[in-house]
From TrEMBL:
SMART domains associated with the record: BON
Gene3D superfamilies attached to this UniProt entry: 3.30.1340.30
Species name: Methylobacterium hispanicum
Protein name as annotated: BON domain-containing protein
GO MF terms, alphabetically ordered: oxidoreductase activity, acting on paired donors, with incorporation or reduction of molecular oxygen
Superkingdom, natural source: Bacteria
PROSITE patterns xref list: BON (PS50914)
One Pfam family linked to the record: BON
Length: 214
């Protein structure tokens, strides 16, 4: 698929997506790699725009250069924002108490600590992305403890059989707490499913995705 077609499809998908002001987002495509620029009203909108671009057929990767500009440019101090983040995490029952530490600098929230499952790490990110004042999130939370390699591989294979159209085209290798995905998929959606299955296995700290689109 040529870059002009991919660019138009990304623009159309952004225009169709709720919560995204497509008029404020620029799109450049080169060899299937999409660069998003411009500015949005919140970090959540920035995240949605990136996900929208990734799901378009023909997109190989996304470079995200979008700036967050809050309406009327409200100034929320880092100390106040850190307190809001701490309260949100305290109220979220999915996140273990005192498992995550928070650092805020110029609206950029850095998260550290450890949790037993990857979905808890993702829940922290999801809980904070809609807070006013957040311009970026750096999620450095570790997932512990590691599980047995055979158990991890079995869980991933079972998840792929439930979700992927042809799971046999996806190879799974487990090295310690690292999962390596190889092979090919028909659509980007299957690649996302494979990654999600790998991250859902308990103890997984890293996923290397070498899957290609057939």
């Amino acid at each position: 698929m040529d870059d002009i077609t991919v660019r138009q499809r990304v623009l159309d998908e952004l225009e169709y997506a709720p919560m995204v002001d497509a008029a404020r987002i620029g799109v450049i495509v080169e060899k299937g790699i999409v660069t998003l620029s411009g500015h949005v009203r919140s970090y959540a909108e920035k995240t949605i725009a990136e996900r929208v671009a990734l799901r378009v057929r023909g997109v190989r990767a996304v470079v995200e250069e979008i700036e967050v500009r809050y309406p009327q440019n409200p100034r929320i101090g880092d100390e106040a924002l850190a307190e809001r983040c701490a309260q949100v995490l305290e109220w979220d029952v999915r996140i273990p108490d005192r498992a995550v530490s928070i650092k805020v600098e110029h609206g950029c929230v850095t998260l550290q600590g450890s949790v037993p499952h990857y979905h808890q790490k993702a829940a922290v990110d999801a809980a904070l992305r809609r807070l006013a004042g957040v311009t970026d999130i750096v999620n450095l939370i570790a997932v512990k403890p590691p599980a047995e390699a055979q158990e991890v591989r079995s869980r991933i294979r079972a998840a792929l059989k439930r979700s992927a159209r042809d799971p046999d085209t996806i190879r799974v290798r487990v090295e310690g707490d690292r999962v390596i995905l190889d092979g090919c998929v028909d659509v980007w959606r299957e690649r996302e499913l494979a990654e999600r299955a790998a991250w859902s296995a308990p103890g997984v700290r890293a996923v290397e995705d070498h899957l290609t689109l057939s």
